[in-house]
Design a protein that fits this description.
globular; single chain; two-stranded antiparallel sheet; mainly alpha
Length: about 375
């Protein structure tokens, strides 16, 4: 939270943000998030398990409502209809659906493992289909926004949980090969026949981002503007950075998607490395908690690993795109990028994980009594 507020404060020194106070708004979102964390401690894992299906249904329903809503409510920004535009408030439902889907997938895997004590190829196939259906349903509506980046996040989370659920490696290998073939075919289609790609649902701007990622030298300066400015900002920070309120590189979306570029310019390699190390510590704690709680609650364990995979893919993709090793998507850097939907949904996920940690402490105390 401290890193977020400092980085956003620096970002809003750029001239395009004159008159804005994103720091104050972010503080409000963090405060609400902390209250959510506190409120969630009144629910135990059994209660979360029971309401998981209703939470998931709610997550899908808000995506359907957004899909059907008129432009006066579901505003289209930069060619994408990703959130509700209300007076003084903008919410992206897909951010919350990520958390509800993680909780429900964890419940499905836990319930399936309880029912099938001994796994067979048939039972593993049934579990794989359940995970696939639960994941694909929200993704179908997210792709209509269109939001390919968020769809990839859902796929990554589901993939991690599939691997950790103990499904037979033969099915996993077959799934990976199938996805690899589809992915390679999609990328090949974009690179070789960009015009034809739009006929299968790949938007022109998405195709341009993939082409730019593979070969930026073949694109115009307009196509590579964002990533060029981002790399210039990160590189100009050098080892120790330029310090507070000393940004010189003008960068679009500096306070949201490209907040890591601001960190790189302000605090250099050392500051950027420190932020990545903090993320590593958080991911490490989530993994260790997931392993510890497994003996008491596999449901809680899968929640930890699902939330870990959410943080991992967001951090990897967001930081990767700022330095040009990943294509540009609208994926925020969780807990650091400005945004009410991103902050609140992440804090809800953190609230559930924190409840898992409390549950582990209770079980440990009970064991030693």
């Amino acid at each position: 939270m401290c890193v977020s507020l400092i980085a956003i404060y620096n970002a809003q020194q750029l001239e395009q943000y004159i008159g804005e106070n994103f720091v104050l708004k972010q503080i409000i979102w963090f405060t609400v998030g902390i209250l959510i964390v506190a409120a969630f401690q009144y629910f135990d894992l059994d209660q979360l398990y029971k309401v998981s299906v209703y939470a998931y249904i709610f997550g899908v329903l808000i995506l359907i409502v957004l899909f059907l809503s008129p432009d006066s409510i579901g505003a289209t920004v930069n060619g994408a209809k990703r959130g509700f535009s209300l007076p003084g408030l903008s919410l992206q439902p897909s951010e919350f659906t990520k958390i509800t889907t993680i909780i429900y997938l964890s419940a499905i895997i836990s319930k399936h493992k309880e029912k099938f004590k001994v796994s067979t190829l048939k039972s593993d196939g049934i579990l794989l289909m359940k995970i696939g259906v639960v994941t694909v349903l929200p993704v179908l509506f997210i792709l209509q926004q269109p939001d390919l980046g968020t769809s990839i996040v859902f796929a990554f989370i589901a993939g991690v949980l599939v691997i950790l659920s103990g499904i037979d490696w033969k099915l996993i290998v077959a799934l990976i090969l199938g996805l690899f073939v589809i992915g390679a075919a999609g990328i090949g289609l974009v690179l070789k026949f960009p015009d034809a790609a739009e006929s299968v649902g790949i938007k022109a701007y998405q195709a341009e981002r993939v082409v730019t990622w593979f070969d930026p030298t073949q694109q115009t300066s307009d196509d590579t503007f964002q990533v060029d400015r981002s790399k210039l900002a990160v590189g100009s920070g050098q080892l120790m950075g330029k310090g507070m309120s000393a940004l010189q590189v003008k960068l679009p979306e500096a306070h949201t998607d490209f907040i890591f570029s601001v960190i790189g310019e302000s605090f250099g390699f050392m500051g950027s490395a420190a932020v990545i190390f903090v993320y590593f510590l958080l991911l490490y704690k989530l993994v260790t908690l997931g392993l510890k709680i497994f003996q008491y609650s596999d449901f809680g364990s899968y929640i930890c690993f699902g939330f870990m995979s959410l943080l991992l893919i967001h951090a990897f993709q967001n930081i990767g795109m700022t330095v040009g090793i990943m294509p540009i998507t609208g994926i925020p850097l969780l807990l650091i990028s400005y945004g009410g939907s991103s902050v609140l949904s992440t804090m809800i996920g953190f609230a559930v994980v924190y409840r898992v940690a409390v549950e582990y402490s209770i079980q440990n105390d009970y064991l030693f009594k």
